[in-house]
């Protein structure tokens, strides 16, 4: 999570921790990602809760997410 956008990576996981990149990109905020009413959060919901079409036609859904909201700030 950045101030003006969300960087998104969607991975599918298989047996023995095998993984595949399903989707990646950035969703830009109209104002700021800190604003909970910004449309960026609705766009993330659509991405996360919408199904992904598998190559055989089946639809896959996201079962878990994580958000890195640390913003890179550190204190010494």
From TrEMBL:
InterPro entries: GpA_endonuclease (IPR046454). GO terms for molecular function: endonuclease activity. Residues 1-75 form the Terminase large subunit GpA endonuclease domain. Pfam families: GpA_nuclease. This is Phage terminase large subunit (GpA). It comes from Candidatus Kentrum sp. FM. The lineage of its organism: Bacteria, Pseudomonadati, Pseudomonadota, Gammaproteobacteria, Candidatus Kentrum.
């Amino acid at each position: 999570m950045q101030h003006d956008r969300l960087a998104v990576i969607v991975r599918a996981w298989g047996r023995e921790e095998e993984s595949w990149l399903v989707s990646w990109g950035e969703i830009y905020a109209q104002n700021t990602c800190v604003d909970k009413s910004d449309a960026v959060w609705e766009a993330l919901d659509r991405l996360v809760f919408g199904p992904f079409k598998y190559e055989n036609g089946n639809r896959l859904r996201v079962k878990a997410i994580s958000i890195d909201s640390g913003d890179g700030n550190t204190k010494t």
